Model the fold of this input.
Amino acid sequence: RDLSKAEREVETHKSTITTEAIREAKLIDQRFKKTSNVSTKSASNKPNAQLTREVQQLLTVLGYKPGPIDGDYGPGTASAIKVFQRDSGLAQTGRVDRELLSSLRSKERSKS
Done:
């Protein structure tokens, strides 16, 4: 008897609870999309080959030695990135990201 009453009371609030849960899930999804860096990373967490190739090319033009310009993110590329970051006063992450690309492009333009 008490169970039936409780079920009826829950039923009246069910749509409100569901609506609030959906709204909260959408907010979390939006926050995640803003903070994720999908455009520079592939599913395996390796940098995108096209971006890596551009970084390797810019590093080479600027006198850093990442190794072959092949789009493969390896230890030579990571090391050259860190040296460039150090020389540029950036955090030495060794990662391909927007800040690195922007800095490399800017240095390359000012060199020309």
User: Anything to note?
Assistant: The radius of gyration is 24 Å.
